Amino acid sequence: MKYIPASVLTIALCALPNFVVRGQEPSTETPGLDIVNVEQMTATVTKVDLENRKVTLQLEDGREKTVKVRDEVQNLDQVHVGDKLVVKYATEVLLNVGNEPPASPTGQSVIAVAPKGEKPAMIMVNTATATVKIVDVDPENHRVTVEGADGKQRTLHVSKKVESLDKLKVGDTVTATMTEGLAMSIAK
Description:
The protein has 188 residues and is mostly beta strands. Helices cover 5% and strands 53% of the residues. The longest helix has 9 residues, at 6-14.
């Protein structure tokens, strides 16, 4: 696992606008789609168990969820009942269509945490690449469904700005790269 300065990923992830779904046309030399989605939510801390490194959160819809806090998080002792946890979640899926050989499944993870004594914050970024098969293309509803080697299917929502969905065909094999970023910070 690689560690990088928290400020680098914080700037990168927080610079993304909230609740944005966009698509962009790829170059004509490499047909494909780039699908990006960023969401933000806030939860309220209702319980902190320092000994077991667990925090209970009340979500925006009223449900409560208890989460185990990773050992890398150094400032758990600064989290208190009533604190607001701001979570930003970003995903990007890049589908490359072409005559390239199938991609070997790969993955990489990066985590960055606030230094000891700073306001609690953490950023995680995971990237995975694999070959998937197109099982459905729905240009009218701007959706593409892909199936991985494990047989699991995933439906991707594509921006209405992308007009080339009709270029994807059921049965096409494409290389998919998915990047997920999660940023969490306490807002007192």
